[in-house]
Structure formats: C-alpha cells, structure tokens
Amino acid sequence: MATDTPSAMLDPRLLGEPVTTTLPTRRHDDDPDSEGEGSVGKRRKNVKQNLWKCKPCRDARKKCFPENRIWPQKCERCLQHRPEALECSEPQLNTRKRGKNLSKQNQQPTRRQSQSRSQSERPESRGRESSDDSESDGVPAQYDRPVRTTVVKNIKEEFPDSRLIPKIVQPIQPSPIREQRPASAYIPLKDGEFRILQLNPGRKEDKAVVCSFKTASIAEPVEYEAISYLWGGSDAKQQTSVDISLRDANGIVHPLKIRSNLHSALRNLRHPKDPKLFWVDALCINRSNGTEMNKQVAMKRDIFHKAANLCFWLGEDASYKTALNFIPQILDLTKVDELVKDDGAIDGWVAFVTLLKNVVFSRLWLVQEVAVARNVTLHSGQPAIHYGDFVDAVAMFVSFRADLILLFRRHKKKHEATERPEDNNG
User: Which ranges carry the Heterokaryon incompatibility domain (predicted)?
Assistant: First the structure.
C-alpha cells in the first residue's frame, strides 16, 4: 500500500535538485581538552589541524581555502594551480593528528641537521685519509687507528657473547725459513699464558726493527693489537726474508728472519715515539716447539677476541692505498649519486675493484678472525680504514652496479667485478 512521503524526507538527488554540502565548523567549546584561558593555544592548534580538505590539498598537505565553501565550489589552490588547474574533489575531514610539541632541548635533529653534523665530524673520524708521508711535529698525523663512520647504520655485532665465538681452524703454516729460535728469548710458557711482541718505536723509513717479548695471561691480558696478513702474499718479492733484532730478557740481541711482507707491516704499524704491543703468530709462537705450538693454536680464538684491535695488513700496493683513501668518498651519501657517474673518479673506482679482487678476502681464516675480533682495521702503508666502512662501501658498490658498468665502459676499463654471469648471457 503506497503512502505519501514528504519531499523533505527524500534524497535530493532523486528529485533532480542540485546537491549542496555545508561543511560543519568546530566550535571552541567542543574541544574536550580546552580548560580556561590557558588552553587557548592548544585549542587553536586542534582547530587548525582538523580542516576539511579536498583530495589534492590533503595529499600535498596544503591548506584548503575557503574553509566554509560549499561543494561543488572548488578551492583556491586547485583553481590557481599552474600550468593547469587541479581536479578538485568534495572536501573530506582531515583526520591527521599532530604530535605533542617538544621543548627545544628535547627536539630530535632533522635529517638535514644530522647529515650536516656528520659531515662536520667526518674529517676528525677519518684521520688517516692523508698521504703516506704527512707528518706533524715529527709524529705521523694518521697513526691513530680509524674508527667506524657514523653516516651509515652500524652493523649488528655478530658475537656479543664470547661463548658463541667460533673456533679458528686456520692451520699453522710452517715457515720456509728453517732456523732454531733462541731459547733465551722464547722462555717456556705456563698454561693460559702467551707471548706479546713489544715493538720498539721507529719511523717507516727506518729499516731496522727491534723488538722483545712480554708474557701475558689470557685471563687478564694487557692492551695489545693483533696483526693478520697473507702468508707470502701474491707478489714474489714478499717471499724473501728479512732480518730483525730480537732482544731477550738479558739484553742480548738475536737476529731473526721473517717474511718481507711482515717486516713491512711492522715498520708501518709501529709508533714513531712509543713502544707498541702486538701479537703476531709467526713471532709469538715458538714453532720449533711442537707442544707449545699446539697449545697456542688452541688459544688463538681467545687471543684475537681479547685484542683491542685487529690490524689486517694488505701490503703496500699503490692501488690498495688509493682504494682505502677513496672509500670515504663512497660513504658520502650526499655525493655518491654523482660519484658513480663522475668521469674524474674512474681511477678511484678501478682501485676499489682491484682491492676487491685481493685473494685475501676469499680466505676462510680471514672470516674467522674478523668474526672473533672486537674491532678490525684494514691497512696498506699508512692509509687505513675501518673494516665496517669497507663492508658499507662494498654494499654501496653493489647498489650502483649498473651506473658503474656504464662508467667503466665509457673509459674502456675492465669491470669484471661489476658484472654478473647473467649480464653476459644477453
């Protein structure tokens, strides 16, 4: 049975009449947080944030005026947009809420401020980017060990608990130089003891290396650094032997033969004025005593973990030095987009690829030593870089692989390290 329905109860669109929408406005007395005169500022802020906005203004986070307009009237921003007007839409209530205001001392720095602050701190944290022979007051300015760059997010520590540290299974490689170690210098060790090499001060140019031994306990060791290097190296010149001077407890100096690449590492890593303590397996372990050698090899995991720093020696190849000095530029996030396309940076990228091809990075014992060490630095001559920065630079290198391939091809450089097998298969 049909009934007469008043026209006021019908949808205006069914009657063919134009639809007009009146936007409700919010009154100050509706604010539940308003209490007296002290909350006027807070009340106005809430009113400002809860505007009715069209979709273009809401997406652009812009104000939509006039505030009390009636649809289909378009807002001023959509009408005045150039080169052509935007497609305005029916206003919707903006439900985006604003966070709590913080005082100036509690405000977090913005991304731009953080980058500028990191940019200003970067020269101090990379004190070893200068040339090999730069000195100040007779002491090389780049002697201090490099620290991790804070621009890139730090990598989570792999082994926070020493009980989880994997054992080092590096086999002891017998020295090709057969000689009897002086008994007065290699005093027998007790259980839980190991030798630390005390390296006398000297400059890089000084060929003479003088050292002695100190006995330490693995339970409470003194502060020392460990030295790791590639036995013999890939260069035939590194297979030669060099004499160093080993002083025993009675002050008697004994000549001792070591590999030339280890001799180069000792000359570069020593301090010019103060004695330094290092642990080197080729010197600190008496290899003529099989019983001691087996006990010391079993302690290598703890020796590397207790060291304040692991200095990984790459040699004195000119390309390695160039690569280590080039890594800070790769980590500059504000310029890396231009660096991968800069023709003037091709020499730095070629040196970095050469460093990646070093066979030392394919050795299992390198992974084991880096895993157990608390801090690792890479050294080539005087230039050095933190191992974490090297890992971050490799990640950046992989991210910009396509751009680097184009850069290498423009200069007709070999870029095997930038290509993958599928790139050559079409």
Answer: 224-369
**Confidence tier at 196 by pLDDT (50, 70, 90):** very high
Same domain, 333 and 304: no
**Does pLDDT of 399 surpass 80?**
yes
| Residue 168 domain-assigned (yes or no) | no
The residue that leads in pLDDT, 125 or 23, is 23
User: Is 17 part of any domain?
Assistant: yes
Tell me, what's the pLDDT at 122? 44
Taking residue 359's Cβ as centre, other Cβ atoms within 10 Å add up to 9
pLDDT for 65 beyond 70:
yes
Q: Say which residue the tokens 């970095």 belong to.
A: 352
Residues 405 and 298 in one domain: no
Range of 216's domain? 185-312
What is the β-pairing status of strands 241-247 and 139-140? unpaired
Q: Taking Cα atoms as reference points, which of 248, 419, 390 lies closest to residue 328?
A: 390
Decide which of 93, 115, 131 is a domain's last residue. 93
Are 277 and 322 members of one domain? no
Examine the domain organization and report whether 304 and 380 are in the same domain: no
Using the structure block, give the residue that is written with the tokens 């809430």: 46
d(CA 165, CA 374): 11
The answer to the question of residue 106 being in a domain is no
Residue 307 burial class via C-beta count within 10 angstroms: exposed 0-12, middle 13-18, buried 19 and up:
buried
Q: How many CB atoms lie within 10 A of CB 80?
A: 10
How many CB atoms sit inside 10 A of residue 162's CB? 12
Query: Domain tally for the chain?
Result: 3
Supply the pTM of this predicted model. 0.59
Is 132 inside a domain boundary?
A: no
